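Friendly challenge for the regulars: who can give me the structure tokens for this chain first? No prize, just bragging rights.
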Amino acid sequence: MNHHIQTAVFGTRFNKKLEMSINTSILNHFFRAFFSVPWYRTQSQYQLYLLEYMELHPKRNPFFQEHASFVQYWVAYQNNKPVGRIAAWIDDKYDELQSSTSLRKTGWIGLFECIPNKDIAHTLIETACESLRNNNVHRILGHGRFNASSQIGLQIQGFDSPPSFMEPFHPPYYESFFSAYGHKMNDWFSFGVEEKSFTEYLHRIQKNESRYGSLEEQLRQKGIRIYSPTKKNLPYEVNRIVSLYNHLWTSPEHPQFSPLCKGEQKSLQQAITVFWEPSLIHIAETKERKIVGIGITVPDINEALLHFPYQFPLYPSLWSLLKQDLKGFLRMYQTIHGHHFTRARVLILGSNVPFSGLDTALYKKLYQAVKKSGIQRISASQIADSNLPMMNPLRRMGSVEKVWRVYQMQ
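First reply, four minutes later:
Bragging rights claimed.
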């Protein structure tokens, strides 16, 4: 069958100002086609249109202004229907971090969706890679979703269970498309921890505490306390969390990391506020109020949307999308604030005080809160294969549930 690629360049940053290269009507039409591809491809996962719109629109997502010097989207059509999509971009902040180890300019491809058609998939991938090469890129990585602090990698294992909040989801056949064009750079893991597992882990901690004293007391003697913030202090706490996060994750243990910038901090604060469950957020600080550890877990909102009934016609109206989103948000709100959720997702957990027992204390606080909330399982992801300090304890607590792969394209 004949197919063709329709392209639209959303913008290139000049002097930190995003210049639109196509008019609004064409942009809106293209967006509707770009958005329709994953729903047209499968209806196995419900996605909120508003969240997708805010992330992909160049005037809504701060990533475009704070990170990107080049972004381009493509849609593939077959018989006048959108059947595939892809994006390419250059993250200047990521390149700055890599400059000490490599002089090669890096580009990314991602947001890939496609029907099971090898020719269309390869045309999309090759088109995106060629655009990056034309912009003096010498190393191309994928699959990604803009900032690697968000969602990273192409899913290659773990298709028998639904994804948790902010975990990438892709059909199994995508792997053959990307493996044909690139080789493995590294993998990212999700660890599923069931109620029985974290109960056993708590028992092991308590056994050690009976010999050496409680972890909280050991940390108190070192001048460190762990607490859950109040909603009133959330803006202040988010700024501190992001500062420590950017410091901790700028290491070989977190490949493809790109620091969160000012606009992304605001987005994180809004997300935490919406999905707020204070007992699942823990901050460790010294007597001087220096933050040294963080543990952020949120209710898994995908649980509320797992069996959500929806329809997504080709080229849907804006009103039909918003109406479905309002129903979806209402279900999420009722699930979270009514404490009806049984699953949670660990977003961030780490400390910069090695060999202090702080990481273990953060896990203890998390599991105590999980048991009290009636949560039956948690997902700890995405953990890089090079992050042994996180991988080793999680292997003792649970098991690998999903795997995502980052490819270097040839």
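Confidence is low (pLDDT under 50) at residues 9-20. The two ends are 27 Å apart (CA to CA). Your move, everyone else.
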